[in-house]
């Protein structure tokens, strides 16, 4: 047995340090589904045949999402997390490489590397917005261009006109809107105008379903059809489909929670305005080298590196968690002599 050399170039997955009560490192929703919503999901499950494979192209769930948007299920594809869909989108299209815009979500590069697809990086500008002209220049032989808006880990929405510049080249654009609910803005309707636009969304953030693992794309029928020819057939199970069907019935709950998270996000930002970037997502980018200090206090955040060395990304938590975070960061600033 000889494991491929490429595999060794990947970092092993690190488990987040256990035993810390406050977990603000994965941009999850801090709110679990209420018991009564779980009960509704359990009711759905009671009716299902656990011995049978799920629908091969996840039609029940695609229909539920399509109804939610008022579009056809032929424009919706679902996956085991947005991540699974990204794993296909890096190689589904003809071209020589993918384009990414660092600092951004790491999984685009991860799956490209796994498939031995080169990555052309067009860094974000100083203000963390994309450079539409520079991307357009690089997009000619690209399989796809990956743009996250709001971007992770910087938190900002990308300007529509810059995205349009890239779309107008005809290149495939994967617009990753994992955090769109927190921005209150989405460009998904542009799929009607641009067959080269693929909008990626997830149930892991605003919908409180990170543990269920599911995400989806909204795109042209041709893209959806192509994806279902190659996608792992049964990656979205019956339990996932039942959970999604139920949470979509309770979007008002999602909206109320999103509003609460935004309120908390702004509260944290106000306390550390000098060190915190504006955010359109459920997390904040902070120019504070406080990862270890916070860990000592039992608060886990995301430590960033490279261009964002010395920065942390902090997911907005529950009110009491945010209070602890604010207290700890105030103490950090005092200790560091910046307070
Ligand atoms: N895109 C971005 C920008 C993300 O931050 C995440 C989650 N960290 C995802 C996609 C994928 O989320 P999931 O696989 O949980 O759907």
UniProtKB/TrEMBL annotation:
Which PROSITE patterns does this one have?
A: AA_TRANSFER_CLASS_2
Pathway connected to this protein: Amino-acid biosynthesis; L-histidine biosynthesis; L-histidine from 5-phospho-alpha-D-ribose 1-diphosphate: step 7/9
Q: Which Pfam families match?
A: Aminotran_1_2
Q: Tell me the enzyme class.
A: transferase
Under catalytic activity, the entry for this protein gives:
L-histidinol phosphate + 2-oxoglutarate = 3-(imidazol-4-yl)-2-oxopropyl phosphate + L-glutamate
**Which EC number(s) does UniProt give?**
2.6.1.9
GO biological process entries: L-histidine biosynthetic process
From the UniProt record, list the coiled-coil ranges. Answer: none
A GO molecular function assigned to this protein is: pyridoxal phosphate binding
Q: Which HAMAP family match?
A: HisC_aminotrans_2
Q: Tell me which family the UniProt entry assigns to this protein.
A: Belongs to the class-II pyridoxal-phosphate-dependent aminotransferase family. Histidinol-phosphate aminotransferase subfamily.
Task: List, alphabetically, the NCBIfam families matched.
Answer: hisC
Please state what the protein is called: Histidinol-phosphate aminotransferase
